[in-house]
Amino acid sequence: MAEAQQLQVLHIQDAKTSNSRMEAVSESSDFRPHHQNNTMKWLRIALYIVVGFSGTASASLLMRLYYEKGGTSKWMGTLVQVVGFPILLPYYLIPHRKAMAPNSAAAVQAPPAPSIRSLVCAYVYLGLLMVGNGYLYSVGFEYLPVSTVALISASQLAFNAFFSYFLNAQKFTPLIVNSLFLLTISSVLLVTNSSSERPAGVSGQNYVVGMVCTLIATAINGLFIASQQMVFQKVLKRQTVRVAIDLVIYQSLVASIVASIGFLASGEWKGLKREMEGYALGKTSYVNTLVWTAVGWQVSILCVIAIVFESSALFANVVGALGVPIAPLAAMIVFHDKMNGIKGISMALAVWGFLSYVYQQYLDEQKSNAETKNGRPFDA
Where exactly are the transmembrane stretches of this chain (predicted)? Predict the structure, then answer.
């Protein structure tokens, strides 16, 4: 019996040695790709954060510009949030090195490819969440200032923490709880301090509708990001760039089809020519606004999925909450919103909360490395 156990242990160790990609997940339950160099991993995450912030900020400002200068179509606002995926198609034209045929014991432990039915269900589910989230955000951008939409959106951190707990068994350490608390307080400060002035031409009723729709969209977005991590873990079960790109493209394709159906069924397409001709900045600016809004949102979506791919859904939302103060700064520059001390305090709290979570990630990495050196198994 003892010899059998020793053989089993040796077999498992050999499998782990022959395939270094089959690493374990640390006790924080964050989902990570298996890279040997943690420094490169965090450099990539930093790049995703910077690019993602740029995409989100530019797309948000352009969305508000679209409605402020004469745009009225909610389904058009939804489409531009999901239809930018063709910019990723050139990836499939890049030649990739084919993986060698598996010839080790590790191949036995490699997860089987998901079924077509599972993939279709996953992509349709995520696509429907995308289009619902996009439509409700369109209502918010039509009736609310950019800064207000961004501040309400920060509450997605709490929604995502809730969904991640149930969908992904996310564990909460004191540092993570501290991070969530600080980021939530940061958002609350901004919301309570935000001006109640409504955009020109927006009634009080529409203003309330915009706030409610944005809040619901925020909850859906929290569920959406948590669901992406669940799909990576339980459906795709593979960590490659190709899998991540496929996820972005197919979920966006489903969302684009549904949004197009909504656009046609609502009859909003009938007023498209009139809307373009009446756009305050001209036809060319109308087209450019929509095109670059779509590109900005797609870049943002890709970076969010990349962060989920590298770390976890909760961390992706922590990064999103860190970006909340950026919206008031951008709005101050573009739309001349006011800046005060409360917003400065809010930004400091957001950075503090973000660093708290990053430090927890660092501790997890250190623990993971120590257990690897000692040859101890990880808790899944």
Answer: 42-63, 75-94, 115-137, 143-163, 175-195, 207-226, 247-266, 286-309, 314-335, 341-359
Which pair of tokens denotes residue 168? Answer: 């992904």
Nearest one of 260, 199, 194, 198 to 65, comparing CA atoms: 199
- Who's near 137: CB < 8 A, 6+ residues apart? 77, 81, 149, 213, 214, 217
Confidence (pTM): 0.72
> Is the distance from CB of 279 to CB of 69 less than 8 angstroms?
yes
For residues 255 and 264, give the distance between their C-alpha atoms in angstroms, rounded to a whole number.
14
Alpha carbons 328 and 29: distance in angstroms, whole number: 33
pLDDT reported for residue 14: 43
Q: What is the pLDDT of residues 134-156, one digit of tens each?
A: 999 999 888 887 777 777 776 67
Say what percent of the chain tops pLDDT 70. Answer: 68
In contact, 364 and 27? CB cutoff 8 Å: yes
* Half-sphere exposure in the Cβ direction for 114 (13 Å, CA): 18
End-to-end CA distance of the chain: 26
Q: What is the DSSP string of 11-29?
A: HHHHHHHH-TT-PPP-TT-
Identify the burial level of 258 via C-beta atoms within 10 angstroms of its C-beta, where 0-12 means exposed, 13-18 middle and 19 or more buried.
Answer: buried
What backbone phi and psi angles, to 5 degrees, belong to 95? -65, 135
CB under 8 A, 24+ apart: contacts of 231-236? 231/122, 231/126, 232/31, 232/308, 232/309, 233/31, 233/168, 235/114, 235/118, 235/119, 235/122, 236/114, 236/122
Q: Which of 293, 117, 136 is nearest to 224 (CA)?
A: 136
pLDDT digits (tens, 9 = 90+) for 212-228: 898 899 889 888 888 98
Instruction: Tell whether the torsion through CA atoms of 22, 28, 33 and 36 is positive or negative.
Output: negative
> Which DSSP string do the residues of 212-276 spell out, in sequence order?
HHHHHHHHHHHHHHHHHHHHIIIII----HHHHHHHHHHHHHHHHHHHHHHHHHHTGGGGHHHHH
How remote is the C-alpha of 106 from its chain's centroid? 32
The structure tokens listed for 119 are 């993939």
Q: What is the CA radius of gyration of the chain?
A: 23
Look at 339 and 377; give whichever has higher pLDDT.
Answer: 339
